[in-house]
């Protein structure tokens, strides 16, 4: 009975079903609308794995790196998308899935979706914050311009700068402003301007165009290069109604390249008008000051001291005489005080003087080596002594020594 049926392995079955699916023209190029779920981004490989679902069913899907790199936006769970691809079976798992080759947001275009996603991301990081924006210098001497060398934008910028403020030097860096290589060139130009340009303002931009034409100025790398610039940046991309990510990150957004040039420099005629006005004001102020000083001088010339200078000197002489008299009195008082202090010191010294003691009937006796004697034991019989009295000196010779009781002392005791 089994011979009537075909026996195959699981691998053979899956291979057969895969070949049947891939041979079906309806499944080789199919468009499927659904909501993304179970989204996984394998960053190392670049492959995207997800499911597409509606209210009744779900199907697995994969987008390999070579196709995922071309996406303008980042897929997210819950996003409704239109996927183009083919249907086949993953043989090892026995599960059919969609192999996506392209993906577009359903309703909103891919570029618009990418624009909104990047705008939301950078705004959350604070790159649009007003407090981080730099102030433009009033009178820049060197201006950097980054744009295409062939468009009308560069002509408008250079002509307006030359007309409004010809003293400023322009450093021009030609770049691509659309297409595949535009964003890297814009980033490189911004970095070179900061490193070597020596500029005080950078104008970056281009003329109008479609969203695709302006897309280089919506790239994240360009936005971050503008945010990292140490030099103030004026963004001038497209027409007045066009807004790019570069506009939000820049220090100043100009509606057009021509407006950017007008924002970058002052109008020289306005400066000259202001200078002439200030010159007239200064001349008027100087004349008013000179007139005020002349009137003050006339008043002083009519004043009594200048009319009769002897009155001024007499007053000063009187004040000087009073000061001199005051000084004399102070000097005399100081001298009397010092004289009194000296007299008191002399009396004190006199009271301490040995001569004052001698005047009261005492004497000083000097022995050998002219040393004052303090004891009878310090002298021998026959020794010559010098006796100092209040009114003279006596020379004596020791004949005999006695103690306080009148007893005779011997030299050998």
Please sum up the structure shown.
This protein is α/β, with parallel strands linked by helices. The protein has helices at 10-23, 25-28, 65-68, 110-124, 152-164, 182-197, 220-228, 245-249, 257-264, 268-302, 304-307, 309-352, 354-358; strands at residues 30-41, 48-53, 58-63, 80-90, 95-105, 142-147, 169-174, 201-206, 233-237, 252-253, 364-366, 384-388, 393-397, 401-402, 408-409.
Description:
- The chain has 413 residues and is an alpha/beta fold.
- 43% of the residues lie in helices and 21% in strands.
- It contains 13 helices and 15 strands.
- It has helices at 10-23, 25-28, 65-68, 110-124, 152-164, 182-197, 220-228, 245-249, 257-264, 268-302, 304-307, 309-352, 354-358, and strands spanning 30-41, 48-53, 58-63, 80-90, 95-105, 142-147, 169-174, 201-206, 233-237, 252-253, 364-366, 384-388, 393-397, 401-402, 408-409.
- A five-stranded mixed beta barrel has the order 1-2-3-5-4.
- Strand 8, helix 7 and strand 9 form a beta-alpha-beta unit.
- The longest helix has 44 residues, at 309-352.
- It is elongated.
- The termini are far apart.
- The mean pLDDT is 86.
